[in-house]
Amino acid sequence: MTLRGSRVPGTTTDQRLLDSGGSSEWLHTDPWRVMRIQSEFVEGFGALAELGPAVSVFGSARTKPGTPFYEMGTQVGRRLVEQGYAVITGGGPGAMEAANKGARDAGGASVGLGIELPFEQGLNEYVNLGVNFRYFFARKTMFVKYAQGFIVLPGGFGTLDELFEAVTLVQTQKVTSFPIVLMGTEYWGGLFDWLRGTVLDAGTVSRKDVDLLHLTDDVDEAVRMVTESDEQVAPKRPE
């Protein structure tokens, strides 16, 4: 930057840095936040760089243990590990916890990418590799960069956000194409009907765009869709 006239500060940067009695407000300014953002990317890349093949599993934090959707998540986590994949979730409770539990119980890598939220604190007990984030966009980068596919369990706004971001990245070729499998035909069926009806008829998406999504109730089929697609795609992800 170039500063002249009244814009020239009355003190130097070094003076303000070394002034022990100065205000700590600088910790909350945008330039400092850039450093925090950078540190989150560095920490995430460092933690996951050697993870190996992985699948990101999304789903609601409100899914209760003992319910069919929780059991589905546990089975998904277990089967992915049995096929040689690490499991990446948001690290929270509910469906995320279920997938992490299945992965850990099967002896695999159970990854949790947590987020700082007022109503959802800490990583679930089944995570054996965890990273916490302040910023959603840094966290979501890790979901995509280190996964060969997505399996989406029933969920709310957060799950929908992650789902449609993944679809958009594939559709716009911002990432190497990978499978996106939704589990729960009764839960997601209305969404598919809307996409294939109202949205497709309006011409705002193409048939090819809609076909990026796959729907099933079968855990083995979902895992097969991910693993078979991974074997056919090279490179697995763009640099």
Gross morphology: globular
What's the average pLDDT?
Answer: 88
Relative helix content: 40-55%
Order of helices and strands: HHEHEHEEHEHEHHEH
**Beta content:** 5-15%
Strand order of the largest sheet: 4-3-2-1-5-6-7
Counting DSSP H or I runs of 4 or more residues, the number of helices is: 9
Largest beta-sheet details: 7 strands, parallel
Low-confidence regions: 233-239
First-residue to last-residue Cα separation: 32 Å
DSSP, total strands: 7
Question: How many whole angstroms does the radius of gyration measure?
Answer: 21 Å
Structural features, described:
It is a single chain. Helix 3 packs parallel to helix 4. By secondary structure, the protein is an alpha/beta fold. It has 9 helices and 7 strands, in the order ααβαβαββαβαβααβα. It has a 7-stranded parallel β-sheet with strand order 4-3-2-1-5-6-7, with helices on both faces. Helix 6 links the parallel strand 5 and strand 6. Helix content is 46%, strand content 13%.
Task: Quickly describe the structure.
By secondary structure, the chain is an alpha/beta fold. It has nine helices and seven strands; from the N terminus they run ααβαβαββαβαβααβα. It has helices at residues 13-18, 30-48, 68-82, 95-105, 136-145, 157-171, 185-201, 207-210, 219-232; strands at residues 54-58, 86-89, 110-115, 129-133, 150-152, 180-183, 213-216.
